[in-house]
Amino acid sequence: MSPPKTFHVKSFGCQMNVYDGERMAELMAAQGLTQADAVDADVVVLNTCHIRERATEKVYSDIGRLRKDQRRKSGKTPMIAVAGCVAQAEGEEIFTRAKVDIVVGPQAYHNLPELVAKAAAGTPSLDTDMPLLSKFGALPSRRKVAPSAFLTVQEGCDKFCTYCVVPYTRGAEISRPFAAIVDEAKALVDAGAREITLLGQNVNAWSENERGLHDLIRDLDRIPGLARIRYTTSHPNDMTQGLIDAHRDIESLMPFLHLPVQAGSDRVLKAMNRSHTRDSYLRLLDRVRAARPDIALSGDFIVGFPGETDAEFEDTLSLVDAVGYAQAYSFKYSPRPGTPAASIVEQVPESVMDERLQRLQAALNRDQHAFNAATVGRTCSVLLERAGKLPGQLIGKSPWLQSVHLIGNHAIGDLVEVTLAAAGPNSLTGIERIAEAA
């Protein structure tokens, strides 16, 4: 196989995978390769997610479809690399199940150029080592980025929730050094970012010596040109008073908090090995709202965890009613091999999980629409991020992470003061606020 000249990276799953995918693309570009569509690229990287069972099967389906599409269009066979958490979890098994050239885990993708060279020479390559943070030092400098950019500051998890594979695919909790984060944030701003979202499996567990995430945010707030800061995903156990106070004190820290709860029943939470209770979670949200009354709250929910009863599911619905989430993610429980929950005998029938998920999502959609409607009439800044479907239309994000549609003479990357004029279930329409003459 001749050395590849073009590449394509396709990422599945969470924002951390999006960040990793961006960095892999920068890594390949630094080697002189040109980005191309998947059906044309010489090497295709599938940056995978292992959280959901069907996501794993989708990877194998995508491999077959990709080879078929390329054969039909050009008659060539692409080099395929499976990266990310499926690569870490499945390892050599991927070579058995599918015709691929490279398998590389999420902590080893900085070795991708070397693995590509080996594959081009005819040697399939596997790298699922998990060295601590060494990949960041081997990655190239940040290039031109979108107005809103991701920045990984923490990786791994020590919480060992009984349903979750992250501790096994991403490793133990570890924080990137403060100086390296600040340097990358400055590079992102220099490359065009006006908003940075700090990422981590448990991002609010970031620490260095006596400093916590709130200290890091206060330092990032001093970077000229950085208008907005966000962070995700947080764990209730690591939501410190310092971080709560940061939402009160730091103007650039957006009034949005994604704080997964997963269930509303204390028995289910204990079975999940979550460190909070229903009451402690709600009291924590009370403290957050006291510090920042306009904050938008987001969460994660799992329905049908093994042994969950009808009454325990009703506890989840009543928690949703009590909180009033602006956004939320909800999923049916999916057993992951090797996790403690997968071996619990009392698995909930699929039909029951389907019905519960529909009821939960109806409640969450109701509350999201209500939150959007309650913001109509507010004036706020909107960061324009991409073109819309209509002529002259641009789409951006409000401080509360709502999609806002705006028509006007503006450019992507502008921060525009708008009045939120109309609300739908998933987006709002903004009207530019014209300053009155003095």
From TrEMBL:
<dbReference type="GO" id="GO:0051539">
    <property type="term" value="F:4 iron, 4 sulfur cluster binding"/>
</dbReference>
<dbReference type="Pfam" id="PF04055">
    <property type="entry name" value="Radical_SAM"/>
</dbReference>
<feature type="domain" description="Radical SAM core">
    <location>
        <begin position="143"/>
        <end position="370"/>
    </location>
</feature>
<feature type="binding site">
    <location>
        <position position="49"/>
    </location>
    <ligand>
        <name>[4Fe-4S] cluster 1</name>
    </ligand>
</feature>
<dbReference type="InterPro" id="IPR058240">
    <property type="entry name" value="rSAM_sf"/>
</dbReference>
<feature type="binding site">
    <location>
        <position position="85"/>
    </location>
    <ligand>
        <name>[4Fe-4S] cluster 1</name>
    </ligand>
</feature>
<dbReference type="InterPro" id="IPR006463">
    <property type="entry name" value="MiaB_methiolase"/>
</dbReference>
<comment type="similarity">
    <text>Belongs to the methylthiotransferase family. MiaB subfamily.</text>
</comment>
<dbReference type="GO" id="GO:0046872">
    <property type="term" value="F:metal ion binding"/>
</dbReference>
<keyword id="KW-0963">Cytoplasm</keyword>
<keyword id="KW-0479">Metal-binding</keyword>
<dbReference type="InterPro" id="IPR020612">
    <property type="entry name" value="Methylthiotransferase_CS"/>
</dbReference>
<dbReference type="InterPro" id="IPR006638">
    <property type="entry name" value="Elp3/MiaA/NifB-like_rSAM"/>
</dbReference>
<comment type="function">
    <text>Catalyzes the methylthiolation of N6-(dimethylallyl)adenosine (i(6)A), leading to the formation of 2-methylthio-N6-(dimethylallyl)adenosine (ms(2)i(6)A) at position 37 in tRNAs that read codons beginning with uridine.</text>
</comment>
<keyword id="KW-0949">S-adenosyl-L-methionine</keyword>
<keyword id="KW-0411">Iron-sulfur</keyword>
<dbReference type="GO" id="GO:0035597">
    <property type="term" value="F:tRNA-2-methylthio-N(6)-dimethylallyladenosine(37) synthase activity"/>
</dbReference>
<dbReference type="InterPro" id="IPR005839">
    <property type="entry name" value="Methylthiotransferase"/>
</dbReference>
<dbReference type="InterPro" id="IPR038135">
    <property type="entry name" value="Methylthiotransferase_N_sf"/>
</dbReference>
<dbReference type="GO" id="GO:0005829">
    <property type="term" value="C:cytosol"/>
</dbReference>
<keyword id="KW-0408">Iron</keyword>
<comment type="subunit">
    <text>Monomer.</text>
</comment>
<feature type="binding site">
    <location>
        <position position="157"/>
    </location>
    <ligand>
        <name>[4Fe-4S] cluster 2</name>
    </ligand>
</feature>
<keyword id="KW-0004">4Fe-4S</keyword>
<dbReference type="InterPro" id="IPR002792">
    <property type="entry name" value="TRAM_dom"/>
</dbReference>
<dbReference type="InterPro" id="IPR007197">
    <property type="entry name" value="rSAM"/>
</dbReference>
<dbReference type="InterPro" id="IPR023404">
    <property type="entry name" value="rSAM_horseshoe"/>
</dbReference>
<dbReference type="Pfam" id="PF00919">
    <property type="entry name" value="UPF0004"/>
</dbReference>
<keyword id="KW-0808">Transferase</keyword>
<protein>
    <recommendedName>
        <fullName>tRNA-2-methylthio-N(6)-dimethylallyladenosine synthase</fullName>
        <ecNumber>2.8.4.3</ecNumber>
    </recommendedName>
</protein>
<dbReference type="InterPro" id="IPR013848">
    <property type="entry name" value="Methylthiotransferase_N"/>
</dbReference>
<feature type="binding site">
    <location>
        <position position="164"/>
    </location>
    <ligand>
        <name>[4Fe-4S] cluster 2</name>
    </ligand>
</feature>
<keyword id="KW-0819">tRNA processing</keyword>
<feature type="domain" description="MTTase N-terminal">
    <location>
        <begin position="5"/>
        <end position="121"/>
    </location>
</feature>
<feature type="binding site">
    <location>
        <position position="161"/>
    </location>
    <ligand>
        <name>[4Fe-4S] cluster 2</name>
    </ligand>
</feature>
<feature type="binding site">
    <location>
        <position position="14"/>
    </location>
    <ligand>
        <name>[4Fe-4S] cluster 1</name>
    </ligand>
</feature>
<feature type="domain" description="TRAM">
    <location>
        <begin position="373"/>
        <end position="434"/>
    </location>
</feature>
